[in-house]
Amino acid sequence: MMKKLIALMFILALSVLLVACVSNHNSTSNQDTDNSEDGTSTETEQEETQSDEEEEVELTYWYWADNSEYSNLMQDIIAEFNQTNDKGITVIGEEYPWDGGGYSETLFTAGVGGGGPDVAAFKLTSTPLFTANDLLVNLDDYINNWKDKADIEENLYDIMKSASGTENLYVMPWNTQILYMYYRPSIFEKAGVDVPTTYEELLTAIEKTTMDTDGDGNTDIYGFGMRGATGGQEPWGSFIHARGGDFKNMTSEEAIQGMQDFIDIYENGYAPPSATTDGFNEIIANFKSGRTAMTVHHTGSSAEMVETFGDDVSAFPFPEGVGQWTSMGDTNNVIFESTEHKEAAFEWVSYLATGKGQEDWTIATGNVPVSTRVQEMDHFQNDKFMKASIEGVPFAGILPIKDTTTEWISTVWPNTTASALLGDITAEEAMQQLHESLHEE
């Protein structure tokens, strides 16, 4: 009796198994039709997806830190992400020195050699080299399907695209530095001018804040702390764009007029005589000593400005004319094409872009957030220098990234501009030379 019972149970189990197999075979045979009709994934696909979600993933992340404080901060952010993400993702942070840009070369060499990280901190200027060698993941689909896409200013996405010279996104925004105009409220009050809201008002303010305060016939305060040495191309670019010019065609009438405005400021004595060779240290020293009423920089110098002047220093975004532009510094993130965990990698870079990692990094470092949600936090809105920076994000930009850009910045721009300021060449001749040198014509 017992043997018969066991036999019957075996036959029943076998029958159930056969029915299941037939059912599964029919489901598999019809999966193309089913998916096209209602988008339902097959049982096999669901199992694979579930398996991927449950799989523990390790990501290697390369970054640099400007100091030990930032190094510890990044490790804390990584630890918090590892503890709080619910997708089994563990980020392993590996710090490399910036080394005057040598970091990017190390990253490229590792990527080409197949030994690069899954994810890395990145500078936009390296984008063409990396994309030309197919090293970076195209982020278009990830960002288009991302719930936080609208939390980042559209202009930042456009800048990321322009860096690659394509209509595709290969770089994930992280944090920025946006140039604005510092000014001294007490000097503005003495000169009887308001904070400029238009480009023409700015030119007027530069003229009126140039003053002989003691009546000895010599200028004591110059309206604008002009930077004629390397780095000066960034504030200069704001003048070119304010007249309606741009970097694509620096020989246009609008661009030439912007250069003429720049020359006029110097020739009319509204900038210090040393402006042709003044670099960062000089423009900051001139402003802090009270020699200039305005100068251009970013939040990196705001603490020392407040330390020097207390409440008698403030900022405004470079005002709009026919056009509007200000220079943006950047630190971003990229995902390497070689990674086997692209979805997990996007979780990490999005955490840095709009998540808690964005808050922690930008609050501690003083960099400008890319997340509009974070920008609206009291910490940033109550800081007048941050507010000026944030107001500049929609019209911020970068110089064209070309093989000629480095030489153009370091040599061509300062030498050509100095010649124009000193009257050796005209604005038109200067812009022709600058255009041809940058665009190799």
TrEMBL record:
<dbReference type="Pfam" id="PF13416">
    <property type="entry name" value="SBP_bac_8"/>
</dbReference>
<dbReference type="InterPro" id="IPR006059">
    <property type="entry name" value="SBP"/>
</dbReference>
<feature type="region of interest" description="Disordered">
    <location>
        <begin position="27"/>
        <end position="56"/>
    </location>
</feature>
<protein>
    <submittedName>
        <fullName>Multiple sugar transport system substrate-binding protein</fullName>
    </submittedName>
</protein>
<feature type="compositionally biased region" description="Acidic residues">
    <location>
        <begin position="44"/>
        <end position="56"/>
    </location>
</feature>
<keyword id="KW-0732">Signal</keyword>
<keyword id="KW-0762">Sugar transport</keyword>
<keyword id="KW-0813">Transport</keyword>
<feature type="signal peptide">
    <location>
        <begin position="1"/>
        <end position="20"/>
    </location>
</feature>
<comment type="similarity">
    <text>Belongs to the bacterial solute-binding protein 1 family.</text>
</comment>
<dbReference type="InterPro" id="IPR050490">
    <property type="entry name" value="Bact_solute-bd_prot1"/>
</dbReference>
